[in-house]
Amino acid sequence: MPSVNAQKRIGIAALIWGASMMLSRAIGVIRESVIGRTLGDSPEADAYWAAFALPGFLQYMLAGVVLLQVAREHGDEAVSYTHLTLPTNREV
User: Fold this and answer.
1) 46 — phi, psi (to 5°)?
2) Is 2 strand, coil or helix?
3) How far is CA 74 from the centre of its chain?
4) Which of 6, 45, 52, 89 could form a disulfide with 2 if both were Cys (CB 3.0 to 4.6 A apart)?
């Protein structure tokens, strides 16, 4: 059982992490609103969203290939790790 001091530090760290996640989501909503008002429904907006989504999708695909290669080389112990790290329902 962790000491009271360690539990307090873990609680503070969890609070900071949770607050930063909420702040990130709020800033994302503001960013989406500003971009939506600025670009509207235009070809420029489509180009922006494609340029924004494409690098993330490529990184996701590259990571999947790398993790599958690790699973093939290292057998069953790596396969369980691969299933934990690759989401099956990923939004692109």
Assistant:
1) -60, -40
2) coil
3) 26
4) 6
Closest by CA position to 63, among listed 52, 53, 55: 55
Q: How many whole angstroms separate alpha carbon 35 and alpha carbon 52?
A: 12
CB atoms within 10 A of CB 81: 13
Domain range list for the chain: 1-40, 41-92
Q: Are 67 and 86 in contact (CB under 8 A)?
A: yes
DSSP string, 66-77: HHHHHHHHHTHH
Q: Which residues contact 45 (CB under 8 A, 6 or more apart)?
A: 35, 36, 39
Does residue 27 have a pLDDT over 90? yes
Dist CA 4 CA 26 (whole Å):
33
pTM of the model: 0.52
CA atoms lying within 13 Å on the CB side of residue 56: 8
Residue with tokens 């329902």: 89
